[in-house]
Design a protein that fits this description.
Length: 193
């Protein structure tokens, strides 16, 4: 999967405060993959009622992962960190209950997935009562990365057309798998564990 450059992740974080709530929530989901080094399937199967926001991290449980298929649940942790100083983690956590609410029925969450699948385009999205899947997530991810590049250009943060072309190429070729590689890739290149 193509590597995501730091500046693109930083501006994806910044994008979260410039778009409508349903798009904020989808950006939040992708940032959870990035900063939690999660596979898309692991994040899809997070039970919303399991999430707990702390000062340093968002904790939760995924009932099914690539490694754990017996539905016992695997703990997840996503750093409440970033490159932009935007509290994207807090924004998404509080927005989740407003935009994609859930109910507790007999002590159990009424759904076993984090986000509903968005349908529609632009500001006219609606939510289907089924989980966000990879086939829906991939074009959304590329669109949001392209919107982050647009925001960079509008803000004067892109130096030259060659750099813009490089970022556009990455935004159009990135996969959802690029997310989970971001932290380990950058840690290795920074000579850190």
């Amino acid at each position: 999967a193509p590597e995501l450059p730091m500046e693109l992740v930083e501006w994806l974080e910044r994008l979260i405060v410039t778009v409508v709530p349903h798009m904020q929530l989808v950006i939040w989901w992708f940032l959870l993959l990035i900063w939690g080094t999660l596979r898309a399937d692991d994040a899809i199967h997070v039970v919303p009622s399991s999430l707990r926001l702390r000062e340093d991290a968002l904790l939760g449980s995924s009932w099914q992962t690539k490694v754990e298929r017996k539905r016992r649940g695997t703990g997840i942790a996503c750093l409440r960190a970033g490159l932009s100083k935007v509290d994207w983690c807090g924004i998404g956590f509080f927005l989740l209950a407003l935009v994609c609410p859930w109910k507790m029925v007999n002590g159990r969450c009424d759904r076993d997935f984090l986000l509903w699948r968005p349908v529609g385009a632009g500001d006219d999205w609606e939510w289907e009562n089924t989980h966000l899947d990879y086939d829906t997530a991939l074009p959304l991810f590329r669109k949001l990365l392209d919107m982050a590049v647009d925001l960079m250009v509008q803000s004067g943060a892109v130096d030259g057309s060659e750099n813009e072309a490089r970022l556009r190429k990455i935004s159009r070729s990135a996969t959802v798998h690029s997310c989970k590689n971001f932290v380990p890739h950058n840690a290795v290149h920074a000579n850190k564990n």
